[in-house]
Amino acid sequence: MKTCPNCGTQMADDAKFCESCGVSLEQGNPGIQGAQPVDNNQSAAQSGPIPAQSGPMPAQMPPAQTQFNPYQQYYNPKDHTSEYDVRDIADNKLFAAFAYIFGVLGIIAALLVNNSPFTRFHAKQAVKLEIAAIVVVIPAVIPFLGWFVTGACLLVLAVVKIIAVVNALNGKAIEAPIISEIGIFKG
User: Exposure pattern of 43-56 as b/e (b: 16+ CB <10 Å)?
Assistant: First the structure.
């Protein structure tokens, strides 16, 4: 058990900061070098003033990078934008969107443009969407129920395609939302 040099609270050995007052329990903290542990059996009058309390509080606060930041950007594992050159993205946004808009012809055009890795990424995503659209049309041979299922799935694919076009035009390399979750389309 560790004892806080500032307030005397007992806490686990692996604790880095006091749960009561927030003082760092690391040995190298300059704000608490002169502080002495407070014995819980002694009264406040006998222990006297603790030097660490007289110093400024910012010296005792944890470093800024370890504090919780509610506005920090979250990590998206499906966002591959940082893997591509900014110039490549700026030059080929429109061709990347063509892969989604014009179907197979757009995919061919996107693959032939400047050998761009950003455009190739979106062409691969467009191929996944086209394959999914072909698979979704198969239940249409079943009257009524198949037509309803096919229509609903094609509507979902249209929304996914719109999202992909918007991402491509914004210069983001984000995998298609629903298609990337399907096992045969991963990778």
Answer: eeeeeeebebeeee
Does residue 75 form part of some domain? no
Same domain for 86 and 64?
A: no
Strand residues in the chain grouped as ranges (E)? 2-3, 10-11
Distances (CA, A) of 67 to 47, 76, 79, 141: 32, 21, 25, 58
User: What's the number of domains the chain is made of?
Assistant: 2
Q: For residue 57, what are the domain limits?
A: 1-68
Question: For the chain, which ranges sit under pLDDT 50?
Answer: 29-35, 38, 40, 42-45, 53-55
Instruction: Convert the pLDDT of each residue in 48-78 to its tens digit.
Output: 555 554 445 555 555 555 566 677 777 888 8
Q: Which residue has the tokens 């990078």?
A: 65
CA dist 164 and 126 (Å) reads: 9
119/172 same-domain check = yes
Cα separation, 151 vs 140, whole angstroms: 8
Query: Do 88 and 149 share a domain, yes or no?
Result: yes
Residue ending a domain, choose from 43, 68, 93: 68
For 20, the 3-state DSSP assignment is coil
Domain presence at residue 73: no
Residue with tokens 């190739």: 120
**How many other C-beta atoms lie within 10 A of the C-beta of residue 82?**
7
